[in-house]
Specification:
The protein is an alpha/beta fold and 235 residues long. It has ten helices and ten strands. The structure holds adenosine-5'-triphosphate.
């Protein structure tokens, strides 16, 4: 479904991604873990066309999207939930969700998806007339995920969904991510520092260090790996 081949990305002279290869198959949850500054966010921004790849290719459903503009990539069915949520703070919850569907014109489908996300996160239905900026961090994360779902993506890209949230909220968010995958078959690619939760949720995982992929295996095998335990799980 999504294939990164030998991707190199730069910020000026900083060589942030050094030839990475990642495959995400249809219907999978795949997690990319790594320390601060490893290049996880850059990987997502390269997929979405925000940071251009200097070398290598990104394929989505067998189409080369390496040089496509971000809006064209969203239109193809790839939606990103950015790090730090980036909801629209002065728009209401309902207006934020409308923005997620801005490329669609199927009114009935939009209404159905709105019901679906309000069902996933009933607190958002209760707060639909409240501005996004007045929500708690966890509610903003729920809104950011819901806004991305309103584009009805085939692949959902999540950047650090656990960032800055209390453990109980993080668990709730990961449960919903698994539910979205199971109920809709949405393919999910998660970039996360919380290796434990990210690998538990994932079918497969990749480990990134210093802009390169150093390991890949099933989530279960990575969780059991002694090196991973020491470096990322604090065990
Ligand atoms: P974090 O979890 O802190 O977001 P990360 O694994 O997502 O870390 P990236 O944000 O992708 O890592 O950063 C990869 C490298 O690129 C780091 O060395 C970082 O300092 C550098 N970098 C990231 N964004 C920029 C930028 N806008 N300008 C210059 N360098 C950047």
């Amino acid at each position: 479904m999504l294939k990164l081949k030998n991707i190199h990305s730069y910020y000026g002279n900083i060589h942030a991604l050094k030839g990475i290869d990642i495959i995400v198959n249809k219907g999978e949850i795949v997690s990319l873990i790594g320390a601060n500054g490893a290049g996880k966010s850059t990987t997502l921004m390269t997929i979405c066309g925000i940071v251009p790849a200097k070398q290598g290719s990104v394929e989505f459903e067998d189409q080369d999207i390496t040089s496509l503009a971000p809006d064209k990539i969203v239109a193809l069915g790839l939606s990103q939930v950015p790090e730090g949520r980036r909801i629209f703070p002065f728009l209401t919850v309902a207006e934020n969700l409308d923005m997620g569907a801005f490329l669609r014109d199927d009114k009935d489908g939009i209404a159905k998806d709105l019901d679906y996300v309000y069902g996933l996160f009933p607190i958002l239905a209760e707060r639909k007339n409240q501005t996004g900026g007045t929500l708690s961090g966890g509610e903003q994360q729920m809104l950011a995920i819901s806004r991305a779902l309103m584009a009805r993506p085939n692949v959902l890209l999540l950047d650090e969904p656990s960032l800055g949230l209390a453990p109980i909220i993080v668990k709730q968010i990961f449960d919903i991510i698994k539910k979205i995958n199971k109920e809709n078959g949405t393919t999910i690619f998660i970039v996360e520092q919380n290796a434990n939760l990210a690998l538990k949720a994932a079918n497969r995982g990749y480990v990134m260090e210093n802009g390169a992929i150093t390991m890949t295996d099933t989530g279960t095998n990575l969780l059991a790996d002694e090196g991973i335990k020491k470096a990322y799980l604090g065990i």
